[in-house]
Amino acid sequence: MIQQPNPSISIVIPVYNEEKNLEELYRRLTATLDKLDKPYEIILTNDGSKDESGKILQQLHMQRPAQIRVIEFNGNFGQHMAIMAGFERVRGEIVITMDADLQNPPEEIPKLVVAMENGHDVVNTHREARQDSWWRRFISKSHNKIRAWMMPKLKMKDEGCMLRAYRRHIVDLMASTSEATTFIPALALSYAANPTEIGVAHEPRFAGKSNYNFYGLVRYNFDLITGFSLVPLQIFTMIGMLISFCSFFFVIFLMARRFILGPEVEGVFTLFAILFFLLGIVLLGLGVVGEYIGRIYQEVRKRPRFVIRKVLE
User: Fold this and answer.
1) Using an 8 Å Cβ cutoff, are 95 and 162 in contact?
2) Pairing verdict, β 9-15 and 40-46
3) Can you tell me the distance from the alpha carbon of 266 to that of 271, in angstroms, rounded to the nearest whole number?
4) Among the listed residues 205, 185, 183, 195, the one whose alpha carbon sits nearest the alpha carbon of residue 78
5) 177 and 219 in contact (C-beta within 8 Å)?
6) Quick check: pTM over 0.85?
7) What is the pLDDT of residues 110-125, one digit of tens each?
8) Count of alpha carbons within 13 Å of 114, Cβ hemisphere only?
9) Which of 307, 305, 281, 310 lies closest to 295 in space, CA to CA?
10) Can you give the pLDDT at residue 300?
């Protein structure tokens, strides 16, 4: 198949320590895209892998140099930055993102292409019959509920599925933001005019272990919440107002008790308990404010979001 100057479909895949999955990904992905009979390109971003992923990606590029392009990062900059690097170089009108671990089956891509051809500018997906561990399903389900409550405008049933499709103009808008930290599915929805969501199959990881641990999932969700919602700050504003209101009446109660019953020491431990509770609220609030300030700090420094060592194309 000869590559056209302007492919119709661009596939963007971040790669981090996926040496055991890349050959099978290549086989299944190219077989699926060849059947579509549309010109396409595959952009794989090596996000500072420490295994043999870099060498394997070079070999895959040599097998199909007209269709497979490889971006080599100078270090590890994260999944979303790896996708952004691909977004800055895509040439297709339909841009599809997916993970390299094959939990997103490449055979589901035609579903996304059909939805895009029906006029949608963003196609989100939700995983049917998820094959993850129980604790990952629990965290994902809990966070989806929290996100739906905090950000009702972002209509996503499953924010963790990276198999998604975007129109080129949406991708260009996302790439132009130059944000140091972002959450791509939510950012796309903020620009979309006619989004939709479809169900896709989900498979067990083909080989290796997930690169996301518990801490990584927490940081991942912080990026979404702090990047697209002020609700955490507003919650602590309301808590502060409520506690101040209650404290005013508590002071009046203590003064009245002092005048009626005289000096007493029985309430000392109660006061300490209230003090510790209030200090805990204050420290938690400072932590939330710190998350926002930290992201502001990252933005105002204007450092490069990622450093590219080389591009194979």
Assistant:
1) no
2) parallel
3) 10
4) 183
5) no
6) no
7) 999 999 999 999 999 9
8) 7
9) 305
10) 72
Sign of the CA dihedral running 296, 302, 308, 309: negative
Residue 161 CA neighbour count, 13 Å, CB half? 30
Residue 261, both tokens: 């019953």
CA 175, distance to chain mean position in Å, is 15
Give the contacts of 228 (CB within 8 A, at least 6 positions apart): 151, 154, 183, 186, 187, 190
Going by C-beta distance under 8 Å and a sequence separation of 6 or more, which residues neighbour residue 159?
A: 140, 143, 144, 147, 183, 185, 186, 224
Q: Which residue has the tokens 């404010």?
A: 289
The 3-state secondary structure of the chain, one letter per residue: CCCCCCCCEEEEEEECCCCCCHHHHHHHHHHHHHHHCCCEEEEEEECCCCCCHHHHHHHHHHHCCCCEEEEEECCCCCHHHHHHHHHCCCCCCEEEECCCCCCCCHHHHHHHHHHHHCCCCEEEEEEECCCCCHHHHHHHHHHHHHHHHHCCCCCCCCCCCCCEEEEHHHHHHHHHCCCCCCCHHHHHHHHCCCEEEEEEECCCCCCCCCCCCHHHHHHHHHHHHHHHCCHHHHHHHHHHHHHHHHHHHHHHHHHHHHHHHCCCCCCHHHHHHHHHHHHHHHHHHHHHHHHHHHHHHHHHHCCCCCCEEEEEC
The crossing angle, in degrees rounded to 10, of helices 214-228 and 134-150 is 10
Q: Is the CB of residue 70 less than 8 Å from the CB of residue 15?
A: no
State the Cα–Cα distance between residues 71 and 58, nearest whole angstrom.
10
The percentage of residues in the chain with a pLDDT greater than 90, rounded to a whole number, is 38
User: Cα–Cα distance between 311 and 119 in angstroms, integer?
Assistant: 33
